[in-house]
Amino acid sequence: MNNMISFLFLLLALPLSLALQVGFYSQSCPQAETIVQRVVQQRFNSDKSVTAALLRMHFHDCFVRGCDASILIDSTSNNQAEKAAGPNTSVREFALIDQMKTQLEAACPKTVSCADIIALATRDAVALARGPKYSVPTGRRDGKISRASEVNLPGPTFTVAQAQQSFSAQGLTINDMVVLLGGHTVGTAHCSFFQDRITNFQGTGAPDPTMDKALVTKLRGFCGSNPNVNPTAFLDQNTSFVVDNEFYNQIKNKRRGILQIDQELALDPLSSSIVSSLAANNAMFGQRFANAMIKMGNIKVLQGTAGEIRTNCRVVNKS
């Protein structure tokens, strides 16, 4: 009897996100994952930066209200949605999500959630960028609330400790954080996000001493001095469109981190040993990255009768 009580208590203690399952749509919409993969493949063929865009969208969605596709909802005259918040104004590929949703609604009306589309599309884009191939548990439902005022994401000038606090609030460990920031291996950043590091770091009148001097010179020429021109630089200067561990090698051995938080990962005792292990083993990075992406995709998901299945990812269903 005591064993049965313990077992029941364990079931009650497990998070709802464990109810997500690989192949959730195998009966209700068996072609769902194929449709998503096909559309992502077409987009990747024309623009390999789609991998970075989808990784960013997935991250920004999950860190606000959980992975509920609230980032896709458009603002209205009565509400400024998450899209309107400063950190999200450069999030892109919403039209790509719309394209997948249109095809899925035609094949299986009111069945596949927008939240699952983001997770599946990101998984497929990572694989196309020669990153790890992993299975995504599905069964998420879509949120009905999206508020710009709730967007509070870790920023590029955060210290490792500050970033760790932000990730910890989402149930993610320091290991998860360092691995997920490895997604910057295919990322870019506008010059405005690191301008101080190459010109006037923290008011010193000099560049950040932790950045490679040759890189400082290169970025100064690339970014220029016109405040109305704000180009983007690759965060991984070598394999810019490949999901691999080269990012860690650059921040560890060459001090070539573009964003302040990226370089500090290799310098701070909280994270430096993790960076070293990932830099030394690409297969390890791939496995840990896949696991961290799956874990992130479980943050505060809506299931069962919670939320809804939006028919248009940009608009909450009419009641």
What would your notes on this structure say?
By secondary structure, the protein is mainly α. The chain folds into 2 domains: 22-150, Peroxidase, domain 1, CATH 1.10.520.10; 160-296, Orthogonal Bundle (Peroxidase, domain 2). Helix content is 45%, strand content 2%. It has helices at 2-13, 32-46, 50-62, 94-107, 114-128, 160-168, 174-181, 195-199, 213-223, 246-253, 260-267, 272-280, 282-296, and strands at residues 188-190, 232-234. Strands 1-2 form a two-stranded antiparallel ribbon. Helix 2 (32-46) runs antiparallel to helix 4 and helix 7 packs across helix 13. The termini are far apart. The model is unreliable at 1-18 (pLDDT under 50).
What distinguishing features does this structure have?
319 residues, mainly alpha, two-stranded antiparallel sheet, 13 helices, 2 strands, lactoperoxidase activity, Peroxidases_AS, Peroxidase_pln
Helix content: 40-55%
How many structurally independent domains? 2
CATH homologous superfamily identity of the largest domain: Peroxidase, domain 2
Rg estimate, integer Å? 20 Å
| Helix/strand order, N-terminal first | HHHHHHHEHHEHHHH
CATH class of the largest domain: Mainly Alpha
- Can you summarize the main beta sheet? 2 strands, antiparallel
Subcellular location: Secreted
Domain Plant heme peroxidase family profile: 19-317
Family: Belongs to the peroxidase family. Ascorbate peroxidase subfamily.
Catalytic activity: 2 a phenolic donor + H2O2 = 2 a phenolic radical donor + 2 H2O
